[in-house]
Specification:
Blueprint: E1 3-11, E2 15-24, E3 27-37, E4 41-42, E5 45-46, H1 49-67, E6 70-71, E7 73-77, E8 84-93, H2 103-115, E9 125-136, H3 145-148, E10 155-166, H4 167-180, E11 183-188, H5 190-198, H6 201-206, E12 208-213, E13 218-224, E14 227-234, H7 238-249, H8 253-263, E15 278-281, E16 290-293, H9 294-319, E17 329-332, H10 341-349, E18 353-355, E19 364-365, H11 377-388, E20 395-396, E21 407-410, E22 413-416, H12 419-436, H13 480-489
Parallel strand pairs: 1-7, 3-19, 7-11, 12-17, 17-18
Antiparallel strand pairs: 1-2, 2-3, 4-5, 6-20, 8-10, 9-10, 12-13, 13-14, 15-16, 21-22
Helix pairs in contact: 1-4, 5-11, 7-8, 7-9, 8-13, 9-10
């Protein structure tokens, strides 16, 4: 059985992620997952094609060097904001009513609904996707796909929800990949593929709302009886929280993001001892140092999260299925990692709430434990969808590298490292590991002690109990997000501990 590789690129407002998976039959093994800060993206939309190519190109070169391959194409997610939905009926007249309806005919009906829908503004809009709501054979109605296949009938009818987005966003994405000389194998409307990556079949059948708390936008997809019934998105997410912290504390965006990762939490009245702590920020110049109480920080975050959650709950109510969500709410995306966020949504909504991690029974990974986190769910959804759609091999070449040998990618192509290069790289890796562990000699700009904050100590407070996360791999790969989290973790050791 031949192997092939699927490459997925998730372009978000806060980060870009590149995933490479090796597919053998039904087996999916993630062999590379890397992230980098995004650029040229706003509210999940590519607005600057030149800027967005830089982080993608960086990740492509890293993957090619590590795996000794040449990436030629990739599957990409479509924007999830500024997407409208309409209901469209479709009908197929069958020649022989004594023959049973086949899955090919159902797929033909789906294609007709998607590709032949008359757009009101074809110049500026494009069809993103179509989801079947129900089928009929003229006598029986409100059937799902599995029920109508196999029925004899002279007609086949279906009702479809059509999703329509802006053509400019897809055009900007096309230009970016053309500049990279990487073909786009297929574009996917991410809400539906995301559900397959994090939701269980029973949740989709019994009724569930999937909230994707991203960086530049937050979306909700409502499922009932195995079908996506409603979708909506708003232009607020984790980046909005970062901007709020930046504005209130009058600090840089980067520092605000680090503080959010280290101390971001909802429900300030339930932070226990953490609410008494004060974050001391050394300015590094003539201006006075800043102090931010953790409780005040939580109040800032809680206000924005409440706004986002109330918008999502309004959309759930508008769906008409608010009383049918037996499985409650599943929260995924980077914003799901805010302390107490799931508990806060439960308090506001009354639904049961759990975090949505990529389902580990659907794939395996080697040294890519970051792909098991909530913010990697879209990447796994893209891989799963591409495998189902039998997307072709996305790479060229895969040389066999001996044990202990390493590869390097440059202008002259992929080659094995020389002995001198290998020795030099090992020395660099040791220095890098020491820096990451907090034992290096590198200093942050503007601070003599190499830290973002002034001296001090604090006892780390355990986060509120919640659903257990996925098991970790024994061979972690350090990605951009890992470095940010590591840097944020060191903040615990650099804070004044004061009584409120």
């Amino acid at each position: 059985m031949e192997d092939k590789h699927i490459v997925a690129v998730d372009i978000g407002s806060s980060k870009v992620a590149l995933t490479v998976a090796k597919v053998t039959g039904d087996d999916i093994q993630v062999i590379f997952y890397g992230t980098a800060p995004s650029a040229g993206v706003k509210n999940n939309y590519v607005v600057n094609s030149m800027q967005v190519t830089k982080p993608i190109e960086k990740l492509i070169r890293e993957a090619e060097a590590e795996l000794n391959i040449k990436i030629t194409q990739a599957v990409v997610g479509m924007p999830k904001y500024r997407v409208r939905q309409v209901i469209r009926p479709a009908r197929l007249d069958r020649e022989n009513p004594e023959e049973c309806i086949t899955d090919e005919e159902v797929n033909l009906l789906k294609s007709d609904a998607l590709y032949n829908y008359p757009l009101d503004d074809a110049k500026n809009e494009e069809l993103f996707g179509a989801v079947a709501q129900s089928f009929s054979n003229g006598e029986e109605f409100q059937m799902v796909e599995e029920e109508v296949i196999g029925m004899p009938s002279d007609i086949l009818e279906g009702n479809f929800k059509i999703f329509i987005g802006k053509k400019s966003a897809l055009r900007a994405t096309n230009v970016a990949f053309n500049n990279l000389k990487i073909a786009i194998a297929k574009k996917y409307f991410t809400p539906d593929i995301l559900a397959k990556a994090v939701l269980t079949p029973s949740e989709i059948d019994n009724g569930v709302a999937l909230i994707d708390f991203g960086g530049g936008s937050t979306s909700v997809s409502v499922y009932y009886h195995g079908i996506m019934r409603h979708y909506a998105s708003i232009p607020f997410g984790g980046a909005s929280i970062t901007r709020d912290i930046k504005t209130e504390a009058m600090i840089s965006t980067e520092l605000a993001e680090n503080i959010k990762i280290a101390f971001g939490a909802c429900m300030p009245d339930k932070l226990q001892n953490l609410s008494e702590k004060i974050i001391q920020i050394n300015s590094g110049d003539a201006s006075p140092n800043k102090q931010i109480p953790v409780k005040y920080l939580s109040e800032i975050i809680t206000c924005r999260v409440r706004e986002i959650v109330e918008a999502m709950l309004y959309e759930i109510e508008q769906s008409g299925f608010a009383d049918n969500l037996r499985s409650g709410i599943v929260l995924t995306g980077g914003g799901a990692n805010l302390t107490n966020c799931a508990n806060y949504i439960k308090e506001l909504s009354g639904y049961s709430v759990r975090k949505g991690y990529p389902r580990q029974e659907l794939f395996s990974e080697i040294g890519c434990d970051s792909v098991l986190e909530t913010d990697a769910a879209v990447s796994i959804g893209l891989i799963l969808a591409a495998k189902t759609d039998k997307v072709g091999d996305c790479v060229q070449g895969e040389a066999t590298v001996g044990v202990g040998e390493e590869v390097v990618f440059g202008d002259d192509g992929v080659r094995l490292m020389t002995e001198d290069e290998t020795t030099e790289k090992k020395e660099e890796d040791v220095l890098a590991d020491n820096d990451i562990a907090g034992h290096g000699t590198g200093k942050s700009e503007g601070h003599d002690d190499g830290t973002l904050f002034g001296p001090g100590e604090i006892e780390e407070v355990n986060p509120a109990p919640g659903p257990k996360g996925p098991k970790k791999s024994k061979k972690p790969r350090i990605t951009w997000l890992d470095e940010v989290k590591t840097q944020a973790k060191t903040l615990w050791d650099n804070i004044y501990s004061e009584k409120a």
